[in-house]
Amino acid sequence: MKPDSTPQGVVAGSIPLFAGHPSSDLLPVEALQRVIGAAWQGRGVARFLNYGDEQGNPQLIEFLVERLNRRENLGIRRENLMIIGGSTGGVGMITQHLTAPGDAILVDAPSYRDALHIFRDHGLEICAAPIDDDGIIVAELERNLRELKASGKTPRFYYVVPSFQNPSGIIMAVERRREVIKLSREYRFAIVEDDVYSDLRFEGALPPSFYALADGENVLRLGTFSKTLAPGLRIGWLIASAERIAGFVESGLLRMGGGANPFSAAVVADYCRSGAWEAHIQWLRGQYRRRRDIALAALDSCMPKDVEWTRPTGGYFIWLRLPPSVRVDALDARAKEQGVYFASGKGFFVNPEDGAHHLRLSFSFLPVAELQAGIEILGDLIARMIA
């Protein structure tokens, strides 16, 4: 691995199994260089260096609307989509606009840890319901809703990564999605659908999105180029009702600073319209599937029988459950001594202690040899701790 590709805070030469990033060798560097060069030499380059349209690059919006309608028959129009600074920027923007300090929101347990960080930054009451292999346990979600209603509170939204969830890698079943939509209409909360991994499907079919199942009613769906192109471009998109999009576009932040990353958005628009993005996604699926297969084979061969893990059919992540005798903090300390870093499960729960026997492994970032070696080291450490 190149020294400059080691994640921040990790010693060079170590094995960072925690990094939910695309590896440097999977970034389409040469293709993007050609597109950037062409954009730089074009007659209209000056407009890409100025403030951009508040809604985002028009050509990229047009491309995404056509693609989503063609693939999913969503029936969206230009006014239903805006360009944002990656899905992280979208989560922050939605939280800022839809909530105030003290408001309640709903999440899965576990849920994406950086989203939890954003929600805590905004002073929100975060109510979590557990998941199983089919997604959120609807009875537990409904229990949370009844308790909030009894206390006089209405949650502002339910945040969910429904396909190849971060951290578990699971897919929420279509029946669960429909049940959540029913509850959202009964209890009048929005659904924030962080749909960043759905293009990285290795096998099988995905259920329709929340946005499709709800006909767009009170659903805000996020997408990004970070997982399938390059995270440093900081470009994503948001689909919602025309009224919601107009509200975001008219915000003081966008009125003052313009749309998201105009130059990056112009480059991405040219790249996508050339057909290169679709071809790159197809190639990425094969690359990530191979790494997923290597990771699962290593887990099968070296993990003690008391350890359990998910078997994702796409995305970046595998979620492990440790036996009761092995706490993740102790394993983390021993693994770091061996140069292996993983994501502790404690960061993915509202109550950190709920993750005391869990951890997340990412297979997206490492070369195959390091991926396998890191899992073998973890298996040996866990076996020793059990013994």
What would your notes on this structure say?
The chain is an alpha/beta fold and 387 residues long. It has two domains: 3-28 and 278-386, Aspartate Aminotransferase, domain 1, CATH 3.90.1150.10; 33-274, Aspartate Aminotransferase, domain 2 (3-Layer(aba) Sandwich). It has helices spanning 29-41, 45-48, 58-72, 86-98, 113-121, 138-150, 174-187, 210-213, 242-249, 252-257, 262-273, 276-302, 328-337, 368-386; strands at residues 15-16, 81-84, 104-109, 125-132, 135-136, 157-160, 190-194, 219-224, 236-239, 308-309, 317-321, 340-341, 343-344, 358-362. The strands form four sheets. It has a five-stranded mixed β-sheet with strand order 2-9-8-7-6, with helices on both faces. The protein starts with 14 loop residues before the first strand and ends with a helix. The model has no long low-confidence stretch (mean pLDDT 94).
